[in-house]
Structure formats: C-alpha cells, structure tokens
Design goal:
The longest helix has 12 residues. This protein has one domain. The chain is globular and about 45 Å long. It contains two helices and 13 strands; from the N terminus they run H-E-H-E-E-E-E-E-E-E-E-E-E-E-E. It is 11% helix and 46% strand. Strands 1, 2, 3, 4, 5, 8, 9, 10, 11, 12 and 13 form an eleven-stranded antiparallel beta sheet that branches. A two-stranded antiparallel sheet has the order 6-7. A hairpin with a 1-residue loop joins strand 12 and strand 13.
Length: 173
C-alpha cells in the first residue's frame, strides 16, 4: 500500500463521517450524581419567588450526564414560610426534562404537592415567578424499598422522581 493510500485510510478511520455520510453522534449517558457534583450546584439558599429559602443538603439527589449537565433536587426548609403545599422541593435542571407530555426547559423549578390516601397531586412551578408549569400525579410505588424524601433515578434505571413512597416518571434528552 502506498503512503497516500495509508494516509487516506487513517483519515477515513479517524473521521466522524461514516461511509453513508452521516455524522456519529455521541450518545448522552446519565448517571447518579455524586455528592461533590451535587454540592457544586445545589444552593444553600434556593431562590424561591422573592425569597431565598434554606435547603436540606443531605436530601439532595440528582443525575449528571457525560457532558456535565445535572438535573437535581433538594428539600426546602419551609418552616416560617407560607408554602402550604405550593413548594416543598427545589429542582434545578441544566437540561430539558420531560414530565408527562410537557418538556420543561433548563431552569429552576419548585415542586409542591397535596396528598390523598394513595396519591400525591404534584405541581411543578417556575421558581422565579411561582407560576405552575405542569401537574402530575405521583402514585405509591411498591418498587421503592428505600424511602427518601427526594430522589431522582438515572434514566438507565427506573427513570423516576421519588417523593417519599410516591413517584412519577420523567425522561431526559
């Protein structure tokens, strides 16, 4: 093989273009966020409408992708605030997140809920305005063996957001 053919073969192998002319796309993979990843993004006082409410960092949970984006949440310490089910958790999304049939763009959100015997009626609101963005029903989940105040499972696992013994599904890009 001549040096020109060898060079062309090497270029072809290293090229992101396949023989069909399509570009290889690196697949986004998500994993459970580490404690350090969570500490880097979860605020000690979350911006909630016109307040800055303290968070309970030991309840933080999230998922991180291979590009450094994180979707994470944490319990808000709402004693002394008139939350009344409007918000209990702060959700930070550095990537769009789909819940039910709605895609929430990257941003900060509040998760609040009211409870019936077997369900939580969850409202997710914009953290800046308090405006409700979507409502979803979280059901009692028999697959939950470890009750946590707040937990986000990676999409490769159960792809759910857990609030105590209740959960609802989500998807990420």
């Amino acid at each position: 093989m001549t040096w020109a053919r060898q060079f062309a073969a090497i270029i072809l192998l290293l090229s992101p273009i396949t023989l069909t002319g399509q570009q290889h796309e690196s697949r986004t993979t998500w994993h459970q966020s580490t404690e350090d990843e969570l500490k880097a993004v979860i605020p000690t006082r979350a911006p909630v409408i016109s307040e800055r409410i303290e968070t309970e960092d030991r309840t933080a949970s999230g998922v991180t992708d291979n590009k450094g984006h994180i979707v994470a949440g944490v319990l808000l310490i709402t004693a002394g605030y008139s939350a009344n089910g409007k918000y209990s958790y702060f959700l930070l999304a550095q990537a769009p997140i789909r819940i039910t049939n709605k895609v929430l763009p990257s941003g900060n959100y509040l998760i609040g809920w009211t409870r019936s015997e077997n369900e939580l009626f969850v409202t997710i609101s914009d953290a800046t305005t308090g405006k409700a963005e979507l409502e979803v029903t979280a059901t009692r989940n028999p697959e939950i063996h470890r009750v946590e105040s707040f937990h986000i499972s990676p999409p490769s696992a159960l792809s759910m957001i857990q609030l105590g013994r209740f959960s609802f599904p989500y998807t990420l890009p």
